[in-house]
Amino acid sequence: MAACSGFLSQKEFWATDGDAPILKFNANDWLQSHLDEAISHSNRWLASLGIQHSRVDIDTTPLTSEGARIFRADANRTYRSEPNRAICIKLLSFAHTKFGDYQQSLGYVAGLLLLFYDPATVFKVLTVLNDSPKFLPGYWRGEATACAVDGYVCLGQLRPYLREKLLSLGLLPETFVQKWFAGLCIHHLPYNLLFPFLDGFFAHGNSFLFQFFLSFFDEFENDIMSAASNPEANQLIRFESAPEPRLRKAVEAASGEKYVKVIGALDMHRERVQAFEVNLSKRLQSANEGMWQKRDDDITFSDEED
């Protein structure tokens, strides 16, 4: 096996965590039969980010207090063995402390990266993804407005009739781009397609995600246009009914010159401002204003006063 500092280097990994939820899309045991290839992919990801493997003496002692319950819940939804869960909890807790917020998509990404890297190196990767404007800035907040904004930017690049069809089916971008963008399709794509997808993302940042958005809807335009209901279309958006050869075409085409040009030509700041103002501003204002609404059970009647 090629050099690996993550959980995959553990001698008992497949015995203790072979059925871990993070491996749900390891279809046909692709990872076991392509382990060196997968590690080569992961090495390219670090190279794309300009990150070196950590050389610190890593303290894997579990935290005395796990903090927010969501870290334990997400660790349990990621790995099976308690030692690996404890490392996952510690990593997510550190990320929350440094980033000031947390959402489950970060847990997906952290969980996958822990397969290949030690937790200190994973934390370096998460730091770049979270903080760099090139990657996922603001995507991992509890209320991921930035991710939704970028979804609307992408929606605006589709043909008008396709855009209207998606909206008529109730497929608002915020209902699926969190899994595509913030979660990097980790819980949607089979590993044989996920790893090339991640190659594109780590090399080109969120531009690749936007290019994939356009590529996917070009490939599956007729399917969306013929969808009769939200559940039918949602199955496609979650890749459940998308034939794998066509998904592969969408992933491969996303790096093509056609989509690079479309996304590269956008004034992204202007597009984001417009997407927020047109699609999200009033909704967010209303939701936050509503927090101040007096509830009936807060009203004190005169005959209840002392």
Shape: globular
User: What structural category do the secondary elements indicate?
Assistant: mainly alpha
Residue share in β-strands: under 5%
Task: Give the number of DSSP strands.
Answer: 0
Largest sheet: none
Helix percent reads 55-70%
What oligomeric assembly is this protein in? single chain
Low-confidence stretches: none
Q: What is the number of helical segments per DSSP (H or I, 4+ residues)?
A: 18
What's the alpha carbon Rg, rounded to whole Å?
21 Å
* Mean pLDDT score: 94
SSE pattern, N- to C-terminal: HHHHHHHHHHHHHHHHHH
Please report the distance between the alpha carbons of the first and last residues.
76 Å
